[in-house]
Inverse folding.
């Protein structure tokens, strides 16, 4: 069956049954949505015990399921009978069973595509290798402060289809979109869409960096305005027919662009030639976060909202946990948790944005990344490198002749060693440049353990009067 050329005709109106591939939070939200629309639903998952299986059996006992392998006879029978497959972001489209289904004519989409076909509100779409959660959250808070009712969802917070199923009231959809989610969309059609930056990530899933860039570029398809960084080698590979608004840490080149300006010893965020707010009033750590704030203003510019409440929202924004989060300042040493830096680009951005001497903690599961890309960093600010995790030694090799390096086995050991090395004026930065799955459940658990270790250490020093 082929997809109708009529854009007003939704997929759910063309089918009476569907298969959900992958039963995580997204997959379960798809089941809820499809059942609320009256479609018969089956679920397959390559895991023998998907995390939401018990809830699925309880809430939807009528749903047929097969767990353990997509290649099992039971799962294969379910997939072979399906003309519509809703694929969760964690399942690669290169999975043999999905390739075979597509070859025979089945339609493969994700939850974002279903949401777009239902959504009637203005849409802001946000992607990028780094910073998208911060920008998505900030845009939502700025829009709310200016009187909008935003839905902040996608790759952050609420699964988008839950908003439809639960009749959430909103007049602006602000979506964080990963490359995996974008792979299963046709046309985003956002009012404003951004690619904040592109650096190598998920190279264990993509055949090439070019394929990764193409996945990110899908966010611009059908969108009115493209908000793009002025200087990003990855984004510069993309051509688009959208109206373009640029943002950078330099002077704006056009009245529609956003940037920085210094005058009389003060630095200002600008919209064209108009001053928005002073740089010193942005509470976030690092110059890359200034870029994120500029991107947020640029994404909302076309809506002509009152600027004053949006500025107040920025001033009150404390950032997100595990993203350049200051967790302690003791004896002149600042401790920063950037556990969300799960790729080279995020860590490079963090290191470039800091001006203090840095004791850097890095390592974990590299996801097939080439750490030689870090060799281009100016390492003069890095006093010491502490590595851990499965691929920590690969990072150490890059800096072996440039930095003093120690390897440790646990995060607690890393914190204790950093405390011995740090002196007044230093900044201890956990920015792994790696995923966490070799040692932790996720980056959140890694970041929380770092905070616990730092808190225990600094509290002990305070009790001793150090």
């Amino acid at each position: 069956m082929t997809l109708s050329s009529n854009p007003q005709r939704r997929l759910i109106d063309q089918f009476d049954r569907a298969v959900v591939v992958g039963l995580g939070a997204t997959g379960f939200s798809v089941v809820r949505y499809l059942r609320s629309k009256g479609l018969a639903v089956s679920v397959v998952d390559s895991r023998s015990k998907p995390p939401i299986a018990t809830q699925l059996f309880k809430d939807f006992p009528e749903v047929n399921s097969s767990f353990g392998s997509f290649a099992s006879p039971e799962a294969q029978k379910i997939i072979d009978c399906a003309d519509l497959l809703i694929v969760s972001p964690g399942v690669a489209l290169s999975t043999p069973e999905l390739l075979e289904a597509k070859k025979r004519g089945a339609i493969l989409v994700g939850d974002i595509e279903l949401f777009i076909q239902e959504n009637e509100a203005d849409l802001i779409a946000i992607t990028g290798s780094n910073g998208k959660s911060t920008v998505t959250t900030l845009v939502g808070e700025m829009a709310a402060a200016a009187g909008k009712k935003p839905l902040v969802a996608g790759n952050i917070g609420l699964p988008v289809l839950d908003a439809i199923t639960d009749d959430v009231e909103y007049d602006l959809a602000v979506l964080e979109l990963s490359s995996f989610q974008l792979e299963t969309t046709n046309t985003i059609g956002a009012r404003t869409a951004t690619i904040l930056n592109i650096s190598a990530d998920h190279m264990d899933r993509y055949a090439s960096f070019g394929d990764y860039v193409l996945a990110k570029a899908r966010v611009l398809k059908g969108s009115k305005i493209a908000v793009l960084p002025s200087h990003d080698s990855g984004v510069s590979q993309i051509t688009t027919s959208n109206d373009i608004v640029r943002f950078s840490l330099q002077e704006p080149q056009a009245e529609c662009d956003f940037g920085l300006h210094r005058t009389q010893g003060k630095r200002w965020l600008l919209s064209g030639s108009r001053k928005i707010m002073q740089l010193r009033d942005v509470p976030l750590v690092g110059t890359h976060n200034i870029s994120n704030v500029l991107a947020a203003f640029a994404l909302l510019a076309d809506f002509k909202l009152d600027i004053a409440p949006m500025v107040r929202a920025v001033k009150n924004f404390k950032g997100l946990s595990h993203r350049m989060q200051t967790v302690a300042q003791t004896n002149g040493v600042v401790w920063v948790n950037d556990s969300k830096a799960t790729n080279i680009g995020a860590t490079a951005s963090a290191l470039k944005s800091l001006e203090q001497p840095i004791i850097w903690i890095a390592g974990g599961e590299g996801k097939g990344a080439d750490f030689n890309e870090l060799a281009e960093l100016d390492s003069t600010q890095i006093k010491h490198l502490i590595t851990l995790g499965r691929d920590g030694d690969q990072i150490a090799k890059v800096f072996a002749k440039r930095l003093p390096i120690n390897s440790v086995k646990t995060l607690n050991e890393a914190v204790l060693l950093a405390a011995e090395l740090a002196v007044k004026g230093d900044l201890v930065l956990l920015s792994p440049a790696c995923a966490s799955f070799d040692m932790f459940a996720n980056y959140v658990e890694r970041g929380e353990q770092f905070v616990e270790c730092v808190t225990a250490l600094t509290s002990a020093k305070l009790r001793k009067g150090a």
